[in-house]
Design brief:
- There is one protein chain.
- By secondary structure, the protein is an alpha+beta fold.
- It folds into 2 domains: 2-46 and 179-216, no CATH class; 53-175, no CATH class.
- It has helices at residues 2-9, 181-216; strands at residues 19-30, 33-46, 53-55, 62-65, 70-74, 77-81, 87-88, 94-95, 101-102, 119-121, 126-129, 132-136, 140-142, 149-152, 155-157, 161-163, 168-171, 173-175.
- The strands form 7 sheets. The chain has a 5-stranded antiparallel beta sheet with strand order 9-5-6-15-14, with no helix packed on it.
- Strand 1 and strand 2 (33-46) form a beta hairpin.
- Helix 1 (2-9) packs antiparallel against helix 2 (181-216).
- The longest helix is centred in the C-terminal third of the chain and has 36 residues, at 181-216.
- It is elongated, with a radius of gyration of 24 Å.
- The protein starts with a helix and ends with a helix.
- The model has no long low-confidence stretch (mean pLDDT 89).
């Protein structure tokens, strides 16, 4: 329920990726008794389905078409994101709203000269000013897709990374959240009903056990 609520809260968050919880069944064998089955939330699933793109006209607003993530430098290490709203910092480095630096195809910060004009970003991520190339925005993905883990907000952490061949970017656009409001709200209702049904079952079983204890104690 908490995961579904978080998805709904981020319907309008740029680059957000919907998450789900993967449950597994744990069966414990009991001597001379029926086995005991329990549910366990073993992992979270990140939905990597492409979100729609919105035109902003921003010079450093970038939307990824297809696979890949932007690589960001954080105090905790390198992180991945699909949120492509960037701006030059006071030092001329491209950063996001939280001040995290965007890294290029070589894993280095991208510097935009203060006097640069005619900024353009090609579909392959090449940043140029008046036709002169300055840097190339890198597109990255985890070697093992199962290692991708949502860390918070729109940031992800993964194991070993590799560059995405043939990745494409759109300048002046941002990718929207891939959460579908109607289906997610319907999912919340389903989960809520399942929780209420389980709670009702536990209450009924508790009353039954109490009744047996009271009957035996007479």
């Amino acid at each position: 329920m908490a995961q579904v609520a978080n998805n709904i809260a981020n319907i309008s968050t740029t680059g957000f990726r919907r998450e789900g919880v993967v449950f597994s069944e744990y069966v414990a064998g009991m001597d001379h008794d029926p086995s005991l089955s329990m549910a366990h939330a073993s992992a979270r699933h990140v939905d990597l389905q492409q979100g729609s793109s919105s035109q902003t006209g921003g010079t450093f607003d970038l939307a990824i078409q297809g696979d890949g993530f932007f690589l960001m430098e954080t105090p905790q290490g390198e992180r991945l994101t699909r949120a492509g709203a960037f701006m030059p910092s006071a030092n001329g480095e491209l950063v996001n709203a939280d001040g995290l630096r965007l890294l290029d195809a070589g894993g280095a910060p991208i510097f935009i000269p203060p006097d640069a004009t005619g900024i353009a970003v090609a579909s392959d991520g090449t940043v140029s000013a008046n036709g002169q190339p300055l840097a190339q925005v890198g597109l990255w993905q985890p070697v093992d897709p199962l290692s991708l883990r949502h860390e918070g907000g729109t940031l992800f952490v993964a194991g070993e990374l590799e560059q995405v061949p043939g990745g494409q970017m759109l300048q002046g656009m941002l990718e929207d959240s891939n959460v579908e409001p109607v289906s997610e709200i319907a999912r919340m209702i389903t989960v809520q009903r399942a929780y209420e049904l389980g709670q009702k079952f536990l209450d009924t079983e508790d009353q039954r056990v109490r009744g047996v204890i009271q009957a035996l104690g007479r």
